[in-house]
Amino acid sequence: MNFQFTSKIKRNLFIIIAAGLAMFIIGFSTEKNHMYSELANTEDGTESLLVEYYNELPFTKEAFIDRVKTAASEQGITVDFVDMTLHHGTEVHGESTHHDEFEFKMLLTPHVKETKGSHGHDEGGTHGVEEDGHVEDSHGAHGGVAHSPMETLEHIVHEQGTFPDTGHARSWSNLLVNAFFFFGIGLGALFFIALQYATESGWGVVYKRILEAIIGWLPVGAIFLIFVFFAGSMHWNHIWHWMDPAVMDPGNAHFDPIIANKQPFLSQWFFWMMNVIYFSVFLLFARGFRKRSLQEDLEGGTKIHMKNFAKGAFFLVLFGYLSSVMSWHWIMSIDTHWFSTLFGWLVFSGIWVSATIFILLLVFWLKAQGYVKFINESHIHDMGKWMFAISFLWTYLFFSQFMLIWYADIPEEVTYYLDRFGNYKWILWTTVAVNFVIPIVLLMSREAKRSKITILIIGSILFVFHWVDVFIMVMPGSVFDHWAIGFLEVGMFIAFLGMFIFVVLRTLSKAPLLVTNHPYLDENLHHDT
Questions:
Q1: What average pLDDT score do residues 71-92 get?
Q2: Residue 316 pLDDT exceeds 90
Q3: Helix (H) or strand (E) holding 69
Q4: pTM above 0.70?
C-alpha cells in the first residue's frame, strides 16, 4: 500500500510554510543590533563605561556621541568621552572581536549636575541626582531601584545604540540552527538504517520506508547548510570569525595566536575539503541504501541484504569519525577558543534522539490516516525504548562534559559555560531539566512507551527542546547576549518544519510503505514483546 500525498496535505503544509515565512519576515524586518558596554573603574578610581562595537554601523561615531550627550544632559548628566586605541584581542563574552569600528570610554565629570527633571521641570522628570552622586527615580522607573549616574548612562547607551541590524546576525544564526537541526534528523535516520543492517536487526523492518523517507531531506538540507557556509566564507555573516584571514596573519593587528595555532583544521581550504567529504559520504550512502531497498523489493533473495550488511557496517565506521569532526567544524568552532572532546558525542546523541522522536510522531500520524497498520504496539514499544534510552545518553553526555569542565575550572574551558550561565541560564537549565526529568518520570513504564497520547505529548516537547539545545550551542558565540525567541526564531522553525515534512511525505509516497522481500519481514510482522 502506498501513501497518498493528497492535495489537501500539500495545501496544509504550504499554509504552515507560509505562516512560518510570514513570522520570519516580521522578525527579520525588526531585527536589532546593540552596543556593548561594560562598567569599570579606572586606575584613579573614576567610574567609567567602556563602549565597544564590532559590526557595520548605520551612523558615525560622532553622531552617536552627540545622541548620548543629548540624552544624558536631559537626565542632568554631563559626560566626557575618551577615545581608545583599538587593538584586537579584546574579548566580548569570551570571543575575540572582529570588524571593530570604534572603542571609547565615557567618563562622568567630577561634579554631576543636579537636575529637577528630565527637561528642566520640577515635575514629570525621570531622574534626579542626589549630592552623593546617586540617581533617584521620581516615578519608580527601572523597577523603582535607585541608579548611579553611570548606571543611568549605561541605560542611555543601550537605548541610543540600538538600531536595525544590517548584518542580520540573528537571522544567519537561526538559519544555521534550523539547517543543522533538520539535517541532523536526516542523519539520525541514516545512522539508524545502517545500524539495523550492520546488526541484522529484525524488529525495525517495518520502519524502513519511513527511515528512507526521512533521509530524503538530506540533499535539501545540504543546500541550506552549504549556503550558510558559503555566506560565512564570503563574509556575509560572521558566525565563524576564524574565517577572517586577519586573525591568522601575524602581521595584522587583528592576529589571534590561539586561533592561528589551530591551523590547518581551522582554515578555509580544509573546511571546504571536509565539507565535500561529509556531504559526499552522507548523500552517497543515503542514495545507495534507498536504491538497494527498492531493488530488493523486485529481486528478493539475500544478496542485496548481505551487501547492505557490509555497507552498513562500513558506514558506521565512517559516521563515527565524520559526525564528530563535522560537529567540531560546523558548531564547536563558533566558540573558537573553546573545545571539548565530548562535544561530538553530545551532538550525535541529540541528532539520534530527535530522529527517533520524529519517527514515532510520524508513525502515529500515519496510523491516524489509516496507514501502517502492520506497525503494532510492540514495534512502537521498541522505538519508545530507544527514545527513552537515548534521552538518558544525551543527559549523561551533557553532565559528563559539564562536570569535568566545572571540576577542572580551567579558564579556557569554563568560558563556554560562563557565557551560557550568564546570558542563557534559564533556557539552558530548562532544556536540561526537560530532556532528563520528563523521560525518567513519564516514560519509564512499559505502558507509557506504548501510549499514543503519552508519546505524542512527551515527544513533541522533547523535539522542541532538542531544537533549543542546538540553539544554545550556536547563539552564544554568534549573537552573544542579544538572543530572543520571537517571530524570527519561531517563524523560521515552523517554515523549516513544514518544508521538512513536505519532503519526507513526498518521498514516502514514491514507494510502498512496507518492504516486500526483506529476509526478516515475516519475523517482523509477527513481532511481539
A1: 65
A2: yes
A3: helix 61-74
A4: yes
- Show me where the domains of the chain are located: 7-30+168-240+262-525, 32-164
As to burial, measured by CB atoms within 10 angstroms (0-12 exposed, 13-18 middle, 19+ buried), residue 439 is buried
Spatial contact of 489 and 27, defined as CB atoms under 8 Å apart = yes
Structural contact between residues 355 and 467, judged by C-beta atoms closer than 8 angstroms: no
Cβ(512)–Cβ(292) below 8 Å: no
CA distances for 438 relative to 49, 105, 353, 455, 458, angstroms? 44, 48, 14, 11, 7
Question: Which whole number is the average pLDDT over 294-316?
Answer: 93
Q: Which amino acid is at 357?
A: I
Q: pLDDT confidence of 250, banded at 50, 70, 90?
A: confident
114, 118, 124, 126: CA torsion to nearest 10: -80
CA distance 211 to 387: 15
| Residue 508 in grid coordinates | 514516502
Average pLDDT, integer, range 210-218: 97
Distance from C-alpha of 183 to C-alpha of 15, rounded to nearest angstrom: 22
Q: Which residues pair with 96 in a beta bridge?
A: 91
Q: Show Cβ contacts of residue 54 under 8 Å, excluding neighbours closer than 6 positions.
A: 36, 92, 97, 98, 99, 100, 101
Alpha helices for 216-267 (secondary structure H) = 218-233, 257-260
Q: Which of 211, 184, 191 is nearest to 508 (CA)?
A: 211
Joined grid coordinates for residue 260: 592561528
CA gyration radius for the chain? 27
Residue 132, exposed/middle/buried by CB under 10 A (0-12, 13-18, 19+)?
exposed
How far apart are the C-alpha atoms of 308 and 265, rounded to whole Å? 33
Tell me whether residue 357 is exposed, middle or buried, using C-beta atoms within 10 angstroms of its C-beta: 0 to 12, 13 to 18, 19 or more: buried
pLDDT at 66 (0 to 100): 82
